[in-house]
Write a structure and sequence with these properties.
The protein folds into two domains: 227 residues, Orthogonal Bundle (Citrate Synthase, domain 1), CATH 1.10.580; 97 residues, Orthogonal Bundle (Cytochrome p450-Terp, domain 2), CATH 1.10.230. The protein has a three-stranded antiparallel β-sheet. By secondary structure, the chain is mostly helical. The chain has 16 helices and three strands. It is globular, with a radius of gyration of 22 Å. 57% of the residues lie in helices and 3% in strands. A hairpin with a 2-residue loop joins strand 2 and strand 3.
Length: 376
């Protein structure tokens, strides 16, 4: 039976993550997201998603060293970023840069497990560098060099803002990266697996995922949430905003989910992160607007916030520009994408679904006299 958008259709098997939409649970490799957000950092989470288990201390230090050794964009890549037109948005710049990055990797077309593991670490290292460098170039600033022996979350904040980040900000960014790293067969991950199933290379698969994330129905939701909060402007206006939007059949950004029938577990964690950051920065207004919108939307429609709703206020409180929100999602999700590419290559079968034909049948063609001869 045809299901629009393949809703609830099982398209592949995976051991990477599991979502229980009825209970509101998310597991990476069998570990609940609550435990991971509380106890694991982004690098440990990446190792878990790639290799199936948490690293030993020795393995952890080795992978962190390998990732850190990858840091530093090739001069040719930096030249591409400087040459991008002013009309290129952050996601378009990232998509272009990742496609070009493959040209500087001699193992780009090697799909062996060892080569793919190396490429996964390569991409994990370069995503935040590219996002930060492009942002600084676009705003008339010079790109920075990464800090020595520093975690990816701290390095990313440094590369973006050029000042040593506060510990609370590093912890919050790290948790945001953990929470967004993987989420089953969403649209961008499916695109990556379809590309990988042709035995195309990892860079091509990740570029396909980025192109999919660029679409406003997948990526960009947290950006739209922040724009909504700015439009509301004050907690006392939130109730009227929601009711007016619903009366006009408009969507409240950051609510509802294709899979979760209860509250997204990531949203629950992000609510606390958002509250703590907003209180620490003294800018509690947008958190209060968020809370009021959450209350009214649930009362009116029974809808819960998804991961995008509170990530908007969290990233805003970290001093990150709204137009970068989707690229930050990609900085995290590249870990999940690369894990799925490796899983697909490990037991590959070409993904080639069928479509249900609903067009005309048995039509009779009436030639136009002399039409064919006119081209001879």
């Amino acid at each position: 039976m045809n299901k629009a958008g393949l809703e609830d259709v099982v398209a592949s098997q995976t051991a990477i993550s599991y979502i229980d939409g009825q209970k509101g649970d998310l597991f990476y490799r069998g570990y609940h997201i609550n435990d991971l957000a509380e106890h694991a950092n982004f690098e440990q989470t990446a190792y878990l998603l790639w290799f199936g288990d948490f690293p030993t201390e020795e393995q952890y230090r080795r992978v962190c060293g390998l990732v850190h050794d990858q840091l530093g964009l090739p001069k040719e890549m930096m030249a591409i970023l400087f040459d991008l037109p002013d009309t290129a948005g952050p996601m378009q710049a990232l998509r272009t840069a990742i496609s070009a990055l493959a040209l500087h990797d001699p193992e780009a077309n090697d799909n062996s497990p060892e080569a793919n593991q190396q490429k996964a670490m390569h991409l994990m290292a370069h995503f935040p560098e590219i996002v930060a460098a492009n942002y600084r170039i676009a705003t008339g600033q010079w790109p920075l060099q990464p800090m020595e022996r520093c975690g990816l979350a701290a390095n990313f904040l440094w590369l973006l803002k050029g000042c040593e980040p506060e510990p609370l900000h590093v912890e919050a960014m790290d948790k945001c990266l953990v929470l967004h790293a993987e989420h089953g067969l969403n649209a961008s991950t499916f695109s990556a697996r379809v590309a990988a199933s042709t035995l195309s290379d990892m860079y091509s698969a990740v570029t396909a995922a980025l192109g999919t994330l660029l679409g406003p129905l997948h990526g960009g939701a947290n950006q739209h949430v922040m724009e909504m909060l700015v439009e509301v402007g004050d907690p006392k206006h939130a109730e009227a905003y929601v009711k007016n939007a619903l009366a006009n059949k408009q969507r409240i950004m950051g609510f509802g989910h294709r899979v979760y029938k209860v509250e997204d577990p990531r949203a629950i964690i992000l609510r606390e992160i958002s509250k703590e950051l907003c209180e620490q920065t003294g800018n509690i207004k947008y958190y209060e607007i968020s809370e009021k919108i959450r209350e009214v939307t649930y009362a009116e429609k029974g809808l819960y916030p998804n991961v995008d709703f509170y990530s908007a206020t969290a990233l805003h409180a970290l001093g990150i520009k709204t137009e970068l929100f989707t690229t930050i999602f990609a900085v995290s999700r590249v870990v999940g994408w690369t894990a799925h590419v490796m899983e697909q290559h490990a037991d590959n079968r070409l993904i080639r679904p069928r479509s249900e034909y609903i067009g005309h049948k048995n039509r009779t063609f009436t030639p136009i006299p002399g039409c064919r001869q006119a081209y001879h």
